[in-house]
Fold each of these.
Amino acid sequence: MKTKYIDLIDQTYYFPQEEFTLDDDTLKFHDIDLMALVKKYGAPLKFTYLPQISNNIQKAKKWFDKAIEIHNYAGKYHYCYCTKSSHFEHVLTEALKNDIHIETSSAFDINIVNNLLKQGKLTKDHYVLCNGFKREQYVQNIADLINGGHKKCIPIIDNYEEIDLLTEAIDGNFDIGIRIASEEEPKFEFYTSRLGIGYKNIIPFYNRAIAGNEKATLKMLHFFINTGIRDTAYYWNELLKCLKVYIQLRKICPTVDSLNIGGGFPTKNSLAFNYDYQYMIDEIINQIKISCEEADVPVPHIFTEFGSFTVGESGGAIYEVLYQKQQNDREKWNMINSSFITTLPDTWAISKRFIMLAINRWNDEYERVLLGGLTCDSDDYYNSEQNMNAIYLPKYSKTKPLYIGFFNTGAYQETIGGFGGLQHCLIPTPKHILIDRDQDGNITTEIFAEQQRAEDLLKILGYDEN
C-alpha cells in the first residue's frame, strides 16, 4: 500500500512539473533548493523569483506574435504591466527589461513613474495608461507628466467629469481612452461594473464631450471584465459587445485606433491547472479581425494589462509547522509559525487558492490535516488545497520539523496585507528575499526586508521608545 506523501502527489497529479522537481525527499522550485533557503534565512520566509516575471512576459508576447502572424492581423500588440499587482521596485525593474509599458491606478503611481523615468528604466517612448477613478491629485499628476513631454501617457476616462478636469489641467493636446463599464455575470450582486462608462452611453458621451474638444484626442477603448479572460459564453458575448462599440466609434472617430482588453490571464493555482493561453489569444485576435472586416473598419492595435499573470508566479511563502492540535476525533490542526490573514490575505478574503506543497519529508507517510495561523481569529486558516477541501501533508512529528510552501503568491499579497505596517494581532511581516540568476545561470539571493521587530510596530503605534 502506497502511503507516502510522494505517492499521494504522484498518484493525484502529473509530477514532476516544469517548476517543481524533487531532490531525494525535498522540493525544488525552478531548481532552487528550498530547504537550503530555510537553513540560510529561516522561516517564515517570503521570496520573489525575479526571472519568472520575464519568463511570463516573454511567453505572452510570443503567444500574441504567433496569433498575429497566423491571422495576418494588421495591428500591433503592446504588453502593459498593471502596477497595482505589485508596486515594488525590483518587480518593475525586472518587468521593464522586456520592452513593455505600464498601467497605473492612482495618484502615487505617477510618482513611481517619475522615479523610473529619472533612472532611465522608463522613457517617453513607453506608454503609461492611467486607469482608475481620478480625483484632484491623480489628475494633477497625470497633467504634470503630460505637460513635461510624456505624450504617450494616456488617461483612460472612467467618469464624465474627468474629461473636463484633464482638459483644464493639461496645457496642450493629449490623447485619451474610454473605459467600458462591462456587464457582470448574473451571479454577481450588481449588474454593471462601477468602473467606466456604460456601453450605450459611450457614443453620446463622445459626441457631447470629446468630438468638439480641441485638446483631447480619443485613441483607445478599454475593455475588462472582473472574471478575467475565460473561454465562456459570457466572456465572448461581452467581447463582441465591446467590438460593436469600437466599430461605431471608429466610423465617427478615425483617431481611435487601439483596443485595450485589460488583464485577466489566470496564474497556476494547482498542479492540475489547465488553461490554453494560445487558444484564447488566437480566438480573441480572430474575433476582433472578423468583426472589423465585416464592418469594413481597420483592426485596432491591441493592448493588455496583465498584472497577476506578470508577477504572480514569481512569489512564494514558506512556513514551519510548529505544533499539531487534535481538536476532536477527526480534525488535526497543523499550526504554522505565521498567519494566513496577514501574509496571504487573499486566502482569507476571497478564498483564493495557491499551490501548497510540503517542502521536505516527501518519503514520510501522510495524513489529513487543517492548517491554522497564529492569530486569535477563527478565520485564520487555510483548507482549500487545490481540488480538495482537505489538506494532506507528511505526518506531524515533534522530532522531525515540517516545512510547507505556498507558491505563485506574487500578486497583491504584500500590498493587501500592508507590507511594513501593522499586522493583525501584531504578527510580524516575514523576512522577504529576492532570488535571481547571474549571467552564468547561477542562483543568487539577497535580503529585501528583514522580519518586522517589536520596535517597528511600536513606533507605528505611537509608543515612546523611552
Amino acid sequence: MLTLWGSHQRNCDGINRRQFLQVGALGLGGLSLANLLRLEARAAQPARKKSIIYVVLSGGPSHIDMYDMKPEADIDIRGPFKPISTRLTGVQICEHMPRQAEIMDQLTLLRGIQSVENDHFLSEVYTGLPRTAGRRPAFGSIVSRLRDRDGSLPPYVSLERPSTDEFNFQKPYYAGAAHRPFHPFGESLDNLRLSKGITLDRLQDRKQLLKDLDSIRRDMDQRGEIVGMDRYGQQALDMITSDQVRDAFDLRKEPDRVVARYGKGKYTHQTVKNLYYDFDAKQFLLARRLVEAGVRVVTLSVSQWDHHSGASSDIFHSLGTMLPALDASLAALIADLRERGLDKDVLVVVLGEFGRTPKIVQPGPGREHHADAGCAILYGGGLKMGQVIGATDRNAERAKSGKIGFQNIMATMYQVLGIDPSQQLIDFNGRPQFILDDRDPIAELIA
C-alpha cells in the first residue's frame, strides 16, 4: 500500500511518519525514488469525469435475431440465423456478430427490456419516460444543466441531424435553451471558424457588446429565455475561439489504420422494398474522439432498423447486411476505449426503442413491433461487466421475472455521471418535476 496524503505532521524531508512506514512496508528494494515520484504525480491528477456514448438503433432492432436467440423454438419463431457461442460461458448471440462474441466477457447484456410505447417515438429512449409524461428534457440536456461545463467543448453532442418535428426527442425543454445538443453538421461546423476579416480581437469586442446589451434586457426576461440564450451564445463564442473544439470534430487527426478499424465508412443499404438506409462507421470514431476530449454525452443514431415492411424476408436481408457493420464498428469502439484507458470512464449503451415479435408473419411483414422484450448492450463506465441481466421465456416473448425499463437504464446512466435522479427541475408551468419517476438503477450493474 502507498499513501500519498496524510496528516500535516511531517518529517524534515516532507514525508510524515505514517507515509514513511507505509512506503517501507513495500520493501527496501521494491520502490525507487523515481517510482515514488511517478506514483505521487499520478495520485495528484484529478479523476477524469465520466462520459456516455449512447448508440440508438432507431426503428426497433430484432432482439430474437440478435442477442436473445431461441434456437430450440419453431422455425417460424427462431428465424434463419444461427447462434454462435461467446467468451461468456453459456451465452450465444447471432452468427453475424462474431467480434462481439469474442469480447462478450467484457460486456453486459440486458434481456427482457420493457417499454411503454410500441411505436416509433423515442421519448423513452432519450428521456426515460413515455410521451404521456409530457414534454421532458432529453437526458443529455439534463446532464448539461446539472454538470458544470469543462472548457470550450459542448457537454452534449448529438450526431443525429437536428429535427424540429414531433419525432425530435432530444429537446432541452425546461432544462433551458442553453442545454440543447450541439449537432456537428453543415453550418454548425462551418460556424466554428471565424468569418473572413474577423480577428479574435474583433470577436472579443463583439462579445463584450453583446454582454452589455443583454444586461439591459435581462431584467425584462420573465421566463429565463434571454439568460439561457445568453449562455448559449457564450458557449458558441467559446467554441469558435477554441482549437480543442475544432480538433475534436476533425477525423483527419486520426491515423488511417484507426479509421479503417471502425469499418468501411459511410455506405447505403438497400432493402427488399428499395428503401435506402445509411450506415456511417465514422460516427463511432467521432464519438470516441469527443468523449476523449471531454464531452459528457454523445448520442448517435445508427442507420435504420424498421425492417418489417413488405416481404417477410426483408428483415433478414437487412439484418444480414447491417449486423456485420454494427459488429465491426462497436467492437472497434470498445477496443479503442480500452486501449486508451477510457473503459472505466466512458459508458457505452446500445439499444433501440423496442424489440420484434417472435412470430414471423408470412408472407409479410416479418416481425412486428414488440414492446415486451427488447435488448441492450453495455460496456464500461465502471459498471460490472461480463454478465447477462434478465431473461425471457422460451419464445423470447416476455421477461420471465422482474422488470427492466428505460427509466432503470436511465437511472443507471445518471448514477455513472454522478447525478441523483431524484433531483427536480421546474417545468414550464412552474411545477417541480423529478428527473425520473422510477429512480432505481439496475442493481446488478453496480460494481
Amino acid sequence: MSDRDLEQRVLAAVDQQELIQTVQALVRTPSITGDEHNAQRLFAGIMREAGLAVDFWPLDLPALRADPAYPGEETARTEGYGLVGTYGSGDGPRLILNGHIDVVPTGLPENWTVDPWGGELRDGRIYGRGSCDMKAGLAAGFAAIRAVQRAGVRLKGAVLLQSVVSEEDGGLGTLATIRRGHVGDAAVIMEPTELNLIPAQAGALGFALRVSGKSAHACVRLEGVSAIEKFVLLFQALERLETRRNTGVSHPLLGQHRLPYPLSIGLLRAGNWSSSVPEELEAVGRYGVAMGEDLASARAELEAAIAEAAAEDPWLAEHPPQVIWTGGQFAPGETPASHPVVRLLGECAAHVRGTAPGLEGATYGSDLRLLVNEAGIPSVLFGPGGDRRAHMPDEFVAVDQVVDVARTLALMIVRFCGTA
C-alpha cells in the first residue's frame, strides 16, 4: 500500500459520531480547576477501553510546589491526577498531544441558555463549559489515535495523549507530566486556535496590589483617607505602564495584535462598611509578559511603576502599597515559526482543509512554555474553537472544526511518528 493510500485510510477512519460522544462525555463530567478527579478517571477508562497503555497517577503536590519551575496556583487543591495514554512502542519519533481537562467556573446560571454541563448538540455545535476550552481538543486527539488504530497502522515511534489538570491556574499538571518522564520529540497542544498555528505565546503573571487608607465616619470623610481614591492614582500608573509596554512591539507574531501584552485588574475588594471611609483595598490582576522577557525583569518594572506613582503622593509615600505576586506565573514561550514541526503540522492541516492555516501568536499564557522551556520540546498550539468563545456563557465548539482537527492530528501522527 502506498503512503498516500495509507494516509487516506487513516483520514477515513476518523469516526465523527464517536468523536461527538467523547466530547459530550467529557463536558458532562464537571472538572472545574482543583476538582478534575472524576473527569480524569472517566477519560482514563475511555483510553484503557481503546487499548492505550495508560499511566494514571496521583500528583505529588508537595514536590511540585517545591520545584524550581513551580508555576503557581490560584485554586485550593488537595489532590490531582496525571493521565497519559500511549499508542505505539517503537523507538522512533515520539509525538505528544497535550490538553487540559480543567475548566473555569460556569458563572451566573441565568446567563446560560443551555445546561453548562449538558453537552447539548444543536445545529452542528456542542455546547457546555469546556466544550471549546478545551475538551473538544482532547477528544480530537483521542479520535486521531483511534483512527490510526482502526487503519491498522503500526508506528515506528509512539504518540502520547496527555490529559492534564491545573492549566487554567498555572500549569501544575503539565509540569507533573514532564517530571514523570512523559516527554517526546514534538508536541501539539490542542488549545482553541480556530485551526490556526500558534507557536509563540506571551507570558502572564498574577498579582495583588494592597493599598492602605485611614478610616473615618463618612459624615467627616475628610478626616480619613480613602484607599479607593489612592488606588485610582495607582491604576492610572498601571494604565501608563500598559501603554508603554505595548508601544512598538516588533515580534512578528505578537506584534499583529492591537494589545499583545494586556495588563488588567479583574477583582477589587475595599472597605468594610458603607458609611466608613475605606481603610484598605486589594486589587487582583493579570500582567502580560513580553516575548523574550525575563519574569524577574517584568515584575521589577511593575513594582517600579507602582513605587514611582506612590512617591508622588504624600499619603502613599508614607504608606507604600504592596505588590504581591500570586496565582499563575506564566513565562513566555516560543517555537520558531520555521521549525520543521510547525511546517509539518501546517502541511497536514492544509491537506485536510484545502487551505493553509494562519500563523499567529497568542496573547495568553499556556502550557506551551512548560514543554518548550522546561522540557526542550518544540510545541505548537492547534485546536478547534477560538479563545473568544472560551470562559463565556453558552460556550460551544463547532463539530466540523473538531473533526478537521482530529483528521489533521491523525495525519500528523502518521507522518511524524512514521509507520513500521
